[in-house]
Amino acid sequence: VLVHLGVTAIIAPSYSGLYFRNAFNVGLLLLTCAEAETLSEGEQIALDTTAPEIVAPGRKRLACEPVPGFLMDMVRAGGLMNQ
Questions:
Q1: What is the SS3 assignment for 32?
Q2: How far apart are the first and last CA of the chain?
Q3: Labelling 8: which of 43, 44, 47, 60 has CA 20 to 30 A away?
Q4: What does the buried/exposed string (b/e) look like for 54-70 if buried means 16 or more CB atoms within 10 Å of the residue's CB?
Q5: CATH code, domain with 27
Q6: How many structural domains does the chain have?
Q7: pLDDT tens by residue, 26-80
Q8: For residue 67, what are the contacts with CB-CB under 8 A and spacing of at least 6?
Q9: Confidence of residue 83 (pLDDT cuts 50, 70, 90)
């Protein structure tokens, strides 16, 4: 549902294993960032998926856990069924 609403990524400190895998299966990028809770609702950010990190204007960059290459390939393809 989130992908169909135009959501391309979710940022959070952690995810359940099942949610994590299902999100990538439908092409939704999940970034695990310990400092995600320091962001404010509606705050404008940019995602650097190669680092991966969150870039918030006027703030430091927030590092995220690396996303394995095969999962990034899955996201780029639009999910598991599109590969």
A1: strand
A2: 19
A3: 60
A4: bebeeeeebebeebeee
A5: 3.20.19.10
A6: 1
A7: 999 999 999 989 888 888 899 998 899 999 888 788 999 999 999 999 999 999 8
A8: 29, 30, 31, 49, 52
A9: low
